[in-house]
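Notes, p. 3: input format for complexes.
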Amino acid sequence: MTHAPDPADDHWSAVAQDWADLWGTFTDPARRALLAATGTGPGTRLLDVGCGTGELLALAASAGAAVSGADASPGMVDRARAAAPGADVRVAPAEALPWPDGSVDVVTFVNVLALTDDHEAALAEAVRVLRPGGLLAVCGWAERETNDLAVVHAALAADDGEPVDPDEPEDPWHEEAPVRGVLTDAGLTVEHVEVVEVPWAVRDVDAVVRGVLLGEDAAGVAERGPVVRAAAEPFRAPDGGYRFRVAARLLVARTPAR
Ligand SMILES: C[S@@+](CC[C@H](N)C(=O)[O-])C[C@H]1O[C@@H](n2cnc3c(N)ncnc32)[C@H](O)[C@@H]1O
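Output follows (258 residues plus S-adenosylmethionine):
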């Protein structure tokens, strides 16, 4: 099985600038927690997989780390290179990383692992490129009751005619136990778990609509924008901006010392 990026699947390049503008920095509190929990500092060799527009690369570089990034989307990679000029950023899928065995100290996935086609292959690649005793950090959104944006997504689903199920099961990627499970299955030992508040603060309702409907065409935004506006209303701040409570969960796990 090959894992060469398929240009037809690259919807991220078209939204790279909007991603950077609207979502780029919002997980910074979790990124800082990740750098602290992994002890990233001068000389740490850190590889960020699914590096997006490069915000973690820039933070790690400013902490003195030697940083590399991989992302399947050429448009995201262009912006990551601009955000972290000293970093070695490559267009590459998580499932086939072009780095040698044992060549990095820390591998990170921030809001990425759940998006991969084959998370087992992605984790196997992370373990391969890590040195013995290296650290893998996985960060993603926590359960929906910690995430105000779930209200907006529920309104969109209802508008689409999807049945409302009050007992809808949680997405396993948003729970601690399943993520722990995939890390353990990959041969890693979880050493640290932390939930970090990452509020999404947006300047006005137009930006809320652009952010939530990222990647939709003009017709989709015209049709669904009013639903987003109405659902966002409870989250309007006194200054006219919008503030959504969101929590991210960080797990840090270690590879065997060999
Ligand atoms: C939600 S964004 C997160 C970007 C960044 N990690 C952040 O936290 O801002 C997901 C990113 O993962 C990348 N991605 C998704 N699947 C991937 C895969 N299998 N291999 C490499 N990159 C992938 C996308 O191109 C996109 O840049």
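The CA atoms of residues 147 and 254 lie 28 Å apart.
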